[in-house]
């Protein structure tokens, strides 16, 4: 009999089972080798596929101009909308009937002309909107407003 009252063989069995549990604990580790293999394969696939996925960008850059030809800025014309339904085109007073013709002549003379439309504080919105529409209808391409 052993010192604890049990047999010597029983105590040796308990000691062996403790040792086997420790051995199993040491073996139960995660094996990361397959994970690393998969990641390396994915890395190679992405390295091969990435250049094929990039597209080309079609850039059409502006061509240089002849420097001997001076560049003139476009003409700027101020069109004021007054509160009483009257208009001023570069200081010249116009009424509603004459404004479309004056805008058409301006656009024919120089299509790059910039028409700046300004309205007084007491001008009606309808007159301002009509002025914008008439400028566009008569060929003015560049419109600015204040």
Summary?
This protein has 146 residues and is of the alpha/beta class. It has 4 helices and 5 strands, in the order H-H-E-E-E-H-E-H-E.
Shape verdict: elongated
Mean pLDDT: 81
Content-based structural category: alpha/beta
Fraction in helix: 40-55%
Determine the CATH topology of the largest domain.
Nucleotidyltransferase, domain 5
Query: Largest beta sheet: what is the strand line-up?
Result: 3-2-1-4-5
H-E order: HHEEEHEHE
User: How far apart, in Å, are the first and last alpha carbons?
Assistant: 110 Å
β-strand number: 5
CATH class of the largest domain: Alpha Beta
Radius of gyration: 44 Å
Strand portion? 15-25%
Our count of domains comes out at 2
What does this structure look like?
- With 146 residues, this protein is α/β, with parallel strands linked by helices.
- It folds into two domains: 9-53; 76-145, Nucleotidyltransferase, domain 5 (2-Layer Sandwich), CATH 3.30.420.270.
- The chain is 45% helix and 15% strand.
- The chain contains four helices and five strands.
- It has helices spanning 8-27, 33-53, 99-109, 125-137; strands at residues 76-81, 87-89, 92-94, 114-119, 142-145.
- A five-stranded mixed β-sheet has the order 3-2-1-4-5, covered by helices on one side.
- α3 (99-109) crosses α4 (125-137).
- The mean pLDDT is 81.
